[in-house]
Batch of 3 targets.
Target 1
Amino acid sequence: MRDNTPPILRPMTASDIRRYSKKSQIRRTDTDFMIPAGRKDFSIPKEIDAGDLNWDCQIHPHGTLYFSTEQVTWKDPNMETSMVQITVFTDADVRKQSNSDAIASCVTRLLGQAQISGHLEDTLTELTIDLSTNAHGELECKYYFVAPDRRVLFWEDDFEAKHLFGEVKGVTSGHIKYAMEAEYWMHRELYPNDCSITLELHRELQAMILHAYTDTIFSEVSLAPFDTEELQRALSIVDYLHGIVNEDSTADDQYIWAYARLMRMFTRARFSNFYGEIGARLGTDHPVYTDDNSLDRRPIVKLFNLVLFGSPSSHIRKIDSVWVDQAVNRPRWKMFMNGLTSEWNGLAIYSTVMLAVDISFLAVPTIDQRPAAKIALYISSLWSVASLVVSALLAQNGGQHDNIDRATAFMTRMTRSLHGKENLAIIFSLPYALVIWGMVFFFLALSLVIFLSTNVTTWCTVGPAWLLVIGFIGWPVWAAKRSPISQSASLLWIGRKLGERDVRTDVN
């Protein structure tokens, strides 16, 4: 039993609603339930009379039960102006009288404060309330008001909005409106009943999706929160919903939820990318902060490039392109992880082949006569096993970071440590570097078997082929290491020589 102490009022946001994180309340027990003869009505009661408030039972498209009630009050405490319709939402079980009474008390206090403050200037206003118990055992009433026409939340207390921004820094008073609108659409996702889908909203969402779809087709650094295939499906959904758009009717909850989910994700993307600001992000690889140091020289990467065959530099560039300003773009992250997983799976195959070749070579009887070659094969086998194990571990762990929230948490945790991104690039480089080292030692073992032979014929026939192989291996390595400037200079030199030859030919 609760005492008569009024609940503590605390502001919250729509993202703070605990609907999807609350503990299960259904017990696994056998139920004895006798159905009376002839009973045909098994529906949930549509209304609950709980004293001060009469609640309507609503079922969310995901299946959860929540409650709403409508109140009509004056805009001011003197009752001299027009009336305001207030719709109150809650996830608390108001079938318990104590919960309903606590919420009724909170509603009365909040509406009284809003009247005195003059915050009820909109004709339609919504209020969401969530009951919880704090660490001291005190009952808290968390709340937020909603102005649907403005797509914003507001409160009767000063609200610290820092946690609304996430990892987005440098937010201005004009920029915050997109964070607030994203919270409004989150609220509409949670409570989609009794809402109309206007033609203006339909056109707004359709234009957003069409622009994002076009941008993803022609740009590799599109800021769209979905990939091309997902945007095509979203556009098909919105085109299908065009037939139900009617300014004078209330749409089904499922339709409203679909609009709200898409609008929230696009609006949140606008907030993260500083949409409407002078320094707005124009591509996924475009940092907006002046103190970004992603392009600084990294000595640790240069050091490990020597032993990992330049792979850390390649991976650090990829990480820099997906982890920009402490944020992850969902489609680009999916492409990044799919590319890494494919790479690791392919390297696992190479490692398996190399291991089989090493074991087969060790089974050759004459290899015992070449101790140095045998040692090189042992080392090659170890590198191949290490590459196979690391590839399997990374591929398995990579599947756990496909969700954007988990990916962001993972990258935040990794990059906040010393040399965080550098360490990540080195780890991602290990499967490739290990299998290359396995190949190097296998080639060394093969070379020792060839050149430790006393047969001069073997030297004369295999030696030139060995040099040719060395040249073919070194050629792409040398070409990859050359700078674009030196490559351009070489092309100009070749073009000049060809021109001189053509001139001499014409003279002759």
Target 2
Amino acid sequence: MGLIQSKTDETISSTTNGTSTNSRSIQRRKTLSWRHHGKFTLASPNHQVRRDILTFHQFSSLSEDIAVEILSYISEAPFEVQDDTVKSPLTHVLPMVNRQFYEMCKLDTLWLASLQRLTFRNPDLCKDAFKRLLKAGRTNPKWSVFYTEAIDKDDFMLANKVHNMDYFDKEEIYQLVSNIYDAVSCNKDHTTSNQDEHDPSLSSTSIDSARKMYFMVLKDVAYTTLPVFHMRCPTLQKDMYINITLFEPRYRMLIREAMEGRKSFEFHGRLLNKPRPRFLFAHTRILENGCSAFLVEILRCRMLEGGRARIMINPIKKVKLEGVFPRPSVNNGLHDARIKRFGG
């Protein structure tokens, strides 16, 4: 696989007063170098080389395709495993080994493999991201605001698969992710056509690499945006059940969106099925970026006349609001906020 040799340089400086040595300082510096033959070796301070380290010196003789396939099993990307750190083997470890690995870590093969694993672990989270990517590209599914009757049949089938990807097995999800990448990365000129008038932010999006697509999907996986219920409540704590009556227009909209698609019996005060709807409870005096809030789960909901609702909530996690912004095209005061899914 190559030779990684660690050299130890010792600099010994001494000052002699008569026949005695007043001081001695030893400075040791380890450096890594790469050579394309031999074994993994480590030079000890007395320059005796160790030969008992496991090696894979045949790696350098493998073709690039096989080498990349091997690296794909250890090249996890940021947040691929639910963690609160952005450091990962694909971005902070493998590129530092040598120039060959550095170039390999730019390849679509490794990033696409990471995206496939991420989607398999979080299909419900990645689904919304794929829908947005398809809507921004040349695929306009039927549930898209850009849908037209002239939609390509293959693209519609792909969008329909995304909508039902929760029921796919591992191989089907991997194949679906590859097909999505092919759909949104090809015909980039067509990607931006007929979109500017609808959404300029989406029309400027072009997927020219699997790495870029990974981080665009990661925005939905690492972060989520939820509506905010703002009411000062200094005593609010985790796992403290609270009953609230929602009557303001903005919160009637909040509960209507949260309960959309639920079973009819769940609107009459019975315990909701899992997964339960969630929103953010901002309990501080001022609603602003960086303030703390609780991620709450709706346990029960009883709809009242005029769209009002009486709900029971459970604060499940304290979070920090990364961004607070008013709901666009709505003048009733409802705000949304972005929070981290992992790490809080």
Target 3
Amino acid sequence: MCEDPFSSFQEIVVSMLSLRVAVASAPSLKLRLFQPSLRGICSAAVIRKSPPGCVGSVPPAAWLSAVCSHTLSLRRESGGRATGWYDSVADSAPVHLAEQFLVSLQQASSLPWWASIMVGTLAIRTVITLPLAAYQMIIIGKVEALQAEISELAKRLRYEVSVRARERGWTEKQSRFQFQKNLRRLVSELYIRDNCHPFKASVLVWVQLPLWVSLSLALRNLSMEQSDLQAELAAGGALWFADLTSPDSTWILPVCLGLTNLLIVEIFALQRVNPSRVQKFVTNFIRGISVLMIPIAATVPSSMALYWFTSSVVGFSHNLLLRSPAFQKCLRLPSRRSDTPYRDLLTTFVAKYFK
């Protein structure tokens, strides 16, 4: 009945990493399926190049009309409508909004593209997903605080059902059915009373996943040869990933991504003192997906790999922040596991892997 943080995290990581595999493994990785989007190019007016036929100073309305006309001709030349589920998602409104956000942020900040991607990731995860993660933690804390009351109600209900079963001659199966039905009703009333239904803790998943997919596909669209910003991203990298439109041939970003994901999984696994067989299986499955993500990240443009790595690092930092007693006090959580969470985490980590 209680949704613990590790189970919730497992659901998020499995969903995210599975989507990463699906998106990164799509046929359009070969740069064959992308078709320029009329809405994506015209809505934001983010293309720095002037469209054909525009010379000198042109009013914004006329410039945008020229861009739209040019894009329409491109779509006719490329075959018209997109085909396949990947094309439909890549050409959807949320992806185009993500494109507009990324380009607007880069133009407003004048940062190089690699820094703009990192800053945008930090901003989105801090402004949107961190509050939702804190809300999830509040809900889970309330649910955990109800466990003592639920246990007491279950004992009383079991006794009352046994008495009623003797009076009415219920079979064991009927008694079990009545107990479970009434216990679900009582628990539901408690959740309503404290406004902490466990399903509310899944809001983070329903927001974080579309954001991640939209930004990933937006970066892929911008890195395609048909994009007018492709040249800027090709020169917008740094260090060993100078070209953000090509995969990281050194595998440094993919390996860093895999190690970060593994670190997140291991830290949350340390919370389980006596994990069940199912929890062990899920943990090992996520470990496998984290390792599998390394070669997958090595096949996508560096802009996507950089976003994935930055998102994982920011998420890891937020998870550590949510463990802070001061932060939990600000959230007014009903209970805290430890006043020294970081020391306890380090001690457990060292004891498990280095002794």
